[in-house]
Amino acid sequence: MTFKLKKYDSKRYDDEIYNCLHFAVDAYHDISGHDMGLYVSELMTGRDKRRVIVRKLKEFKPIINPINTCLAVMHGAELHIGIYHDGKIIHFNEQGVQAQPPYIAEINHGRIKYYAISH
């Protein structure tokens, strides 16, 4: 299945309504058919209202090397989330959707940790 980025051209970044995590949940679902939103729903809000439910984090297994398709968490000045797919980090910010090789995403957004998602 080919992932179509154009589908997201009309999306506009808004920290509370549609941010990088909302995009990652949507893109992951489009690619894999699985809803990772079940595990991160409490985080899909504005920065001030986010809550972490620790028992749900067990669904995310840290991995050293990325696999198709997995979560990519970038640790820079701010936490930023995308997905790794077909050799690129696909993520969303104020400029829109971006698909970058990991080394470019790392320059722009900091160290990257990858997580496989249980289904």
Report on the architecture of this protein.
The chain is α+β, with helices and mostly antiparallel strands and 119 residues long. The protein has one domain. It is built from three helices and six strands. The protein has a six-stranded antiparallel beta sheet with strand order 1-6-2-3-4-5, sandwiched between helices. It is globular, with a radius of gyration of 13 Å.
Count the beta strands.
Answer: 6
Report the sheet-strand fraction. 25-35%
* Mean residue pLDDT: 86
State the helicity in percent bands.
Answer: 10-25%
Largest sheet: 6 strands, antiparallel
Count of discrete domains: 1
Shape: globular
- Enumerate the strands of the largest sheet in spatial order, edge to edge or round the barrel: 1-6-2-3-4-5
Q: Could you say which structural class the secondary elements and strand pairing correspond to? A: alpha+beta
Note the run of SSEs as H and E. Answer: HHEEEEEHE
| Tally of helical runs | 3
Distance, first to last CA: 19 Å
Q: What Rg is obtained from the alpha carbons, in whole angstroms?
A: 13 Å
Regions with little confidence, pLDDT below 50 for 5+ residues: none
